[in-house]
Design goal:
Blueprint: E1 26-33, E2 55-62, E3 67-71, H1 78-85, E4 93-98, E5 101-102, H2 107-113, E6 114-117, H3 129-139, H4 144-157, H5 173-185, E7 191-195, H6 203-220, E8 223-228, H7 231-235, E9 239-244, E10 247-252, H8 254-259, E11 264-270, H9 276-287, E12 292-294, E13 297-302, H10 305-315, E14 320-326, H11 330-338
Parallel strand pairs: 3-8, 3-9, 6-7, 7-8
Antiparallel strand pairs: 1-2, 1-4, 4-5, 9-10, 11-13, 11-14, 12-13
Length: about 350
């Protein structure tokens, strides 16, 4: 009746330690945003413009040189936060500073620090990889031998040299994402922003993308901030902020967040028509603790999962459709701090 424990994805190597007095790459203070009625974005369509803001008092600090993830479902507010940091949207209240430069009062100076990879492709597929990079460089005031040298270096770095003069329309999703990364890095930014970077990529392309991200951090000290709804992707970040209903629900390293669970997670699915409260009462009597019922499924955190399973299968097995035991995951953390699954907000 039990299922094997889940396997956790290894976390990314730790970010280089920065001096305690080093300025942060990104500081967000009291950030609030409310969309005007009728002008909500697709990502934030679940937030009512008349009842609650898309962002509600967000505070966070991203250290220089770390890979920082914003984890949450569509409608949580993370994409609104991304657009404000990228200087694409002016907040209703609060402050964002990138390397001590105010994104609201001096967005042009902030953009010099930023490289941005959007969820939706920004490439011109009728142009070659080299032509896409050339146009991007000119937008940043680059030209001549300096621009050509940077393009050649990036084409080499992202294994695109042999396809440099092919039209992007001929590229796979993974190759297009590599061109997007090269575009974002052409002007040598200090902070790389990535909105749902794994969108449209197969598992192999996702692994390649993460190899590039971690290499950029290791070689160049680039700070990376990304949004994601994927647990394995969040697990590779140095730290993550769980975003739910416009607020930060939790923030720490993936390992530290999972350690708050305090043991294995036993998940109990009642048989059809069975009252979950009866099983909760039985479990509470036997274990001296009160499990939670979330969306009809009973969840119990315990340091002695075998004993819990043994007692349940012996006493109330006819009322249980399925029991599973697993080590804590970020999904469990998300459930604990928000009260719902990641795909609902």
């Amino acid at each position: 009746m039990t299922s094997p424990s889940t396997t956790q994805t290894p976390s990314a190597p730790a970010a280089p330690d920065a001096p305690s007095d080093a300025r942060p790459a990104l500081r967000v203070e009291g950030l609030t945003h409310r969309y005007p009625v009728g002008r909500r974005s697709r990502q934030d369509s679940l937030n009512s413009a008349t009842t609650k803001p898309a962002l509600d008092g967000i505070d966070l600090i991203v250290r220089a040189g770390e890979v920082f993830g914003l984890l949450g479902p569509n409608g949580s507010g993370k994409s609104t936060l991304f657009r404000i940091i990228a200087t694409l949207l002016r907040p209703s209240a609060g402050k964002v500073t990138v390397f001590d430069t105010d994104a609201t009062t001096d967005p042009r100076a902030v953009r010099e620090h930023l490289g941005v990879v959007f969820q939706s492709p920004s490439l011109d597929v009728q142009l070659t990889a080299r032509e896409n990079l050339t146009h991007q460089g000119k937008l940043h005031g680059l030209s001549g031998s300096e621009l050509n040298q940077r393009i050649d270096a990036l084409l080499e770095q992202f294994d695109l040299r042999n396809r440099a003069d092919d039209r992007v329309e001929q590229f796979s999703g993974g190759m297009r994402r590599r061109v997007e990364l090269a575009k974002a890095l052409l002007h040598e930014p200090s902070l790389l922003l990535m909105d749902e970077p794994a969108t449209g990529l197969d598992p192999g392309a996702r692994r390649d993308m993460w190899d590039h991200i971690l290499d950029l951090r290791a070689r160049l000290g680039v700070t990376v901030v990304l949004t994601t709804h994927l647990m394995d992707e969040a697990d590779r970040c140095d730290r993550i902020a769980i975003v739910s209903q416009g607020k930060i629900a939790a923030i720490d390293t993936p390992a530290a967040l999972k350690a708050t669970i305090g043991g294995d997670v036993v998940t109990i699915e009642p048989t059809p028509g069975q009252d979950a409260d009866e099983l909760v009462a039985a479990l509470s009597e036997q274990q001296g603790q009160c499990p939670r019922v979330i969306e009809g499924v009973i969840r119990c955190e315990t340091t002695d999962a075998p004993a819990v399973v043994t007692k349940l299968t012996g006493s109330v097995s006819d009322k249980i459709a399925r029991i599973s035991v697993a080590q804590p995951t970020l999904e469990d953390v998300f459930l604990n701090v928000t009260g719902h699954r990641l795909d609902v907000d």
